[in-house]
Design brief:
With 450 residues, this protein is an alpha/beta fold. The protein contains 14 helices and 14 strands. The strands form 3 sheets. The protein has an 8-stranded mixed β-sheet with strand order 2-9-8-7-6-3-4-5, with helices on both faces. The chain is globular and about 65 Å long. 44% of the residues are buried. It binds 4'-deoxy-4'-aminopyridoxal-5'-phosphate (PMP).
Length: 450
């Protein structure tokens, strides 16, 4: 396996005693479940990717440059002036009631009729994935996930020692027949499926959206087989060309836990997301939330609540959609113009991501050091699979760089790919790989694998 960040830093440390302490003293005391908590071997490389000369098509950072900072600043200073002692105090483990009410208005845009009592506010939807997994999964339990799936969720499932079974997707999202097949196979093996984790809209990383006609079919299968659905939907309101799709939760209240987030429609720094869960599950989630954080941040919740009350948040989302559409167009235009033959990609109609398939013989992870040398970064497809698949694919994010930088990034990537194809054509699998360790001397401000 690759070198973890702990090793990398230890090697860089000037004092050997310190690195000894870090490497040796606790290593045999960690809980068994921490074996799944390993830094990706590409993480060191992403420190380099955040250097300004590199065009990063890797991170999924929302582009919040369009947010009206004066409005947000005004809302926050009013909050301090008028409700400071409440905003800076502990609050309810379930979340601020007024915000939970507003969250039901947000979800209504996707056809969901919900009661605020069934909403649990979380520290980003990432924490909701964690809490749901915490209350459902014992080691060895199976979680069904799309192939590929969100790297941050895979990390949670691994940390709780759940086994991920990937289910095929195509251009219309999760394939119902493949889902049925996977359920039957897991059941036949005697293992327990705890839930299906799915990102139906503008998928991270695949960029596809679950077709309307498949939604009912997938709900039918899950209902029949007794499989709970975890619907993760941070991008649902960021469609470019049409109204939001109807959520799975809109048609199935008892068998779906729905996750939402303000990270992409407002700003991730507040760290506010939520889970909408069937009543008994909601109670367990609140207990889990209390043990994890006592309560989600009161200040952030009240700031978001004030923003939603006093600002045209739907107009703001419309602006975000236009900005991301422009960036999507820049990326697709550049791919059409510049990519060598043999590469294929999808055209997402919302969200942040394009999934690029490479010609046979090209390994996206092996190529990454060469790409970073050429000052462009992406996330290799293998990051989005729990089982080592995905080496011939990569995720490209168009959310953050300007359209000009996106085009420049794709131009650099196309150059690297052409060189790589030539190298493989000459040397085959024996072509020399540049070791990732070569980059560990850099220590940028960190990375965003989201
Ligand atoms: N789910 C998906 C599919 C995501 O892409 C992300 C972040 N990129 C999250 C959950 C977590 O987002 P947050 O915690 O900021 O709400």
């Amino acid at each position: 396996m690759g070198v973890t960040i702990v090793h990398a830093r230890a090697v860089m440390d000037a004092t050997p005693e310190r690195s000894q302490t870090r490497l040796d003293t606790f290593v045999d005391r960690y809980a068994a479940r921490t074996a799944g908590m390993t830094a990706s071997e590409i993480r060191a490389l992403f420190a380099v990717a955040s250097r300004p000369e590199v065009v990063s098509l890797a991170g999924g950072m929302p582009n919040i440059s369009g947010l009206p900072l004066d409005v947000v600043g005004g809302a926050i200073s009013d909050l301090i002036a008028n409700q400071g002692p409440i905003a800076m105090q502990y609050g309810s483990g379930q979340g601020v009631p007024e915000l939970r009410e507003q969250i039901t208005d947000v979800m209504r845009l996707e056809g969901i009729e919900a009661h605020p009592d069934d909403v649990v506010v979380t520290v980003g939807s990432q924490q909701a994935v964690d809490l749901v997994t915490r209350i459902f999964c014992d080691p060895g339990d199976v979680v069904l996930c799309e192939a590929p799936s969100y790297v941050g969720a895979l990390g949670v499932f691994k940390a709780y020692q759940a086994d991920v079974v990937h289910v095929e997707m195509d251009a219309e999202g999760l394939v119902p027949a493949a889902l049925q097949q996977a359920i039957t196979a897991v059941q036949a093996s005697g293992r327990r499926i705890k839930f299906l984790y799915t990102i139906p809209n503008f998928h991270n990383p695949a960029g596809v959206t679950l077709a309307a006609h498949r939604r009912a079919e997938i709900l039918d299968i899950c209902r029949r087989e007794g499989v709970l659905v975890l619907e993760d939907n941070p991008y649902g309101l960021l469609g470019f060309d049409r109204e939001p799709m109807r959520a799975l939760r809109a048609d199935e209240a008892d068998g779906v836990i729905y996750l939402g987030s303000f990270s992409k429609t407002f700003a991730p720094g507040f760290r506010v997301g939520w889970a909408l869960a069937p009543h008994p599950v909601r109670e367990k989630l609140v207990l889990a939330q209390e043990s994890a954080t006592l309560c989600p941040p009161q200040f952030s919740q009240m700031a978001i609540s004030a923003y939603l009350s006093n600002h045209d948040w739907q107009g703001q989302i419309k602006q975000f959609r236009e900005m991301y559409r422009e960036r999507r167009d820049a990326m697709i235009g550049a791919l059409d113009d510049l990519m060598p033959a043999g590469c294929t990609w999808n055209v997402p109609d919302g969200g942040f991501y394009v999934w690029l398939n490479l010609p046979a013989g090209i390994d996206a992870k092996a190529m990454l050091p060469r790409a970073v040398t050429a000052r462009v970064a992406y996330v290799p497809g293998t990051a989005f699979f729990a089982d080592g698949f995905g080496s011939r694919a990569m995720r490209l994010s168009f959310c953050y760089p300007t359209p000009e930088r996106i085009r420049e990034g794709v131009r650099r990537l196309a150059g690297v790919l052409e060189a790589e194809m030539e190298l493989r054509a000459t040397f085959g699998a024996a072509a020399p790989d540049r070791p990732l360790q070569a980059y560990q001397g850099y220590d940028g401000p960190g990375t965003d694998l989201s």
